[in-house]
Amino acid sequence: MSMLLNKKDKNNDNNNKNNEKSSNTINNNLEGVNDPESGSLYSNLLLYQKEGDKKENLQQRQVNSSLYIARPTFGLIDFGLKQTLGTGTFGRVFLTKFKHTESYYAMKVLKKSEVVRLKQVEHINSEKLILSQVHHPFIVNLFCTFQDDRNLYMLLEYVIGGELFSHLRKAGRFTNDMTRFYTAEIVLAIEYLHSKDIIYRDLKPENLLLDSRGHIKITDFGFAKKIDDRTWTLCGTPEYLAPEIIKSNGHGKPVDWWALGILIFEMLAGYPPFFDDNPFGIYEKILAGKIQFPPHFDSNAKDLIKRLLTADRSKRLGNLRGGSEDVKKHKWFRGVDWQGLLDRRIQAPIIPPYQHPGDTGNFEKYPEPTDDDKSGGITGDPYRHMFTNF
Question: What is the pTM of this model?
Answer without folding.
Answer: 0.89
